[in-house]
Amino acid sequence: GESVGLHLPTLSVQEGDNSIINCAYSNSASDYFIWYKQESGKGPQFIIDIRSNMDKRQGQRVTVLLNKTVKHLSLQIAATQPGDSAVYFCAFKPPTGGYQKVTFGIGTKLQVIP
Amino acid sequence: DGGITQSPKYLFRKEGQNVTLSCEQNLNHDAMYWYRQDPGQGLRLIYYSQIVNDFQKGDIAEGYSVSREKKESFPLTVTSAQKNPTAFYLCASSRQIPNEKLFFGSGTQLSVL
Question: In which region does residue A3 sit, left (phi positive, over 0), alpha (psi from -120 to 50) or beta (all else)?
Fold first, then answer.
């Protein structure tokens, strides 16, 4: 809603460039990681996920990288477009339990400059 | 179209008033969740339900109540005991299988008059 996007880290990218959004996690027991995209006034949309037995996964124009050694997750968006402008946040989940065990990051606001 | 429907999109609460946020899903999901979203914070879990007629408190349940009388419906009541209710509220659902995706509704913005 209108409250989303305030006080968030912001990344400004020129249209056509690649974007890299980062996320650090603290729980080394996490084994499932998800990236969401949230446009202003809307609910989050699933973008891509990755399990801890992988270090890279690719989707359409997006790539998620997982570095378990330093507990770091990143989302790369290729050829960023104006429609990519949104808040992006990561989520991580331990191996047991449902989404009640998920921790969500605060998000990064991506601004695409035409 | 399958999905989660939240209503209303905007809601205003007066002092001492209880308000109820609606959440309906037609995805045949067993699990449903309510989250609160505030600026500068990650989503925080209010209540969740893994099956009909059962629900559990999340991390910030005080001042809220829920019911799960039907599989497709999980309404959230923000009571007068919740002293800081202004936030964006998100309902979500998932199947009860590990690593299944979490689907979100479009949210309700609650403000205090």
Answer: alpha
List, in order, residues 6 or more apart from B49 with CB less than 8 Å away: B31, B32, B33, B55, B56, B66, B68, B74
Identity at A83, one-letter amino acid code = G
Nearest CA in chain B to A95: B98
**Tokens found for residue B54:** 């059962």
Token pair 């005080």 in the structure block, residue: B62
Contact state of A99 with B106 under an 8 Å Cβ cutoff: no
What's the pLDDT tens digit per position in A13-62?
999 999 999 999 988 888 899 999 999 989 999 999 999 999 999 999 99
Closest-CA residue in chain B for A3?
Answer: B39
Residues of chain A positioned with their CB less than 8 A from the CB of B42: 89, 103-107
The residue among A69, A66, A67, A60 whose CA lies nearest residue A37 is: A60
| Residues in a beta bridge with B7 | B22
Which tokens is A97 given?
Answer: 């339990």
